[in-house]
Amino acid sequence: MFKLEEFDIKLDTKFVGRNFIYADTLDSTNSFLLNSEKKYNNGTTLLAEFQEKGRGRIQRPWQSTKGKNLTFSILLNKKLKKYIPNHINLAASLAVSQSIEHLYQLKTDLKWPNDVLVNKKKISGILLESKSTGSALNKIVVGIGINVNQTKFEGEFKIQPTSIKYEKRQIINREILLSEVLNNFEELLELSKQNSKKLLDTWRDNCRMLGENVKIEHNNEIKYGVFYDIDANGFMLLKDGDKFEKITLGDVSLIQI
Ligand code: BTN
What we know:
Layout: H1 4-10, E1 20-26, H2 29-35, E2 45-51, E3 70-76, H3 85-104, E4 108-111, E5 115-118, E6 121-133, E7 136-146, H4 164-168, H5 174-194, H6 196-205, E8 213-218, E9 221-230, E10 236-240, E11 243-247, E12 251-254
Parallel strand pairs: 1-2
Antiparallel strand pairs: 2-3, 3-7, 4-5, 5-6, 6-7, 8-9, 8-12, 9-10, 10-11
């Protein structure tokens, strides 16, 4: 059971999570907010204990044992022109990594575009989706999955999953973690508007893959090069010899040369 009062007392935001919806089971928190006709407040946060069709990036499923983890989505539907959508991705992954480091003293690593790793294993993933009418962006939904108290993961994974409980060997308070993530996310969202260079630099400081030889896989296509940098929009710049290519999608992994 999720203890609302414990979450609420630690929430220190102006709008993110101020309208909080708790659900037992849904298909997907992202799908619910994306497809809902109802006009929810900016910052509405929807948490589900179980998702029947939890979705990950690149049409992958996101599996999470009922009641153990955090699977939630944040709706943004106000003044969206002020944001670069991909900066929201970076802000969300930074919010998760800062929260895990601050609350549990675990060293995290960011994996482009928006995975959070601990000890080279995946502890959190983010799926940003949006809805537009014509060229106008109506809403952005930031879906976040964090492995919190689940310790067994079955199936095939691109990167081995882990959880905070597994790494810390202690049960983790989900309410405190969620409020910390939302507090950090709101701050980083503000930073993305006020000083996006600082947001990008903070992300760079937390990504150990920068400057390394990497492999990018997408749709059965493989590219190799050096992860040179991220550009002003947060996309990857891949350097192959003296050629640069902007990468917007794919799975990146380190390679040994
Ligand atoms: C990934 O790493 O591929 C992204 C995973 C995103 C999972 C979250 S869980 C809450 C929200 N609802 C979904 O269906 N997906 C996101």
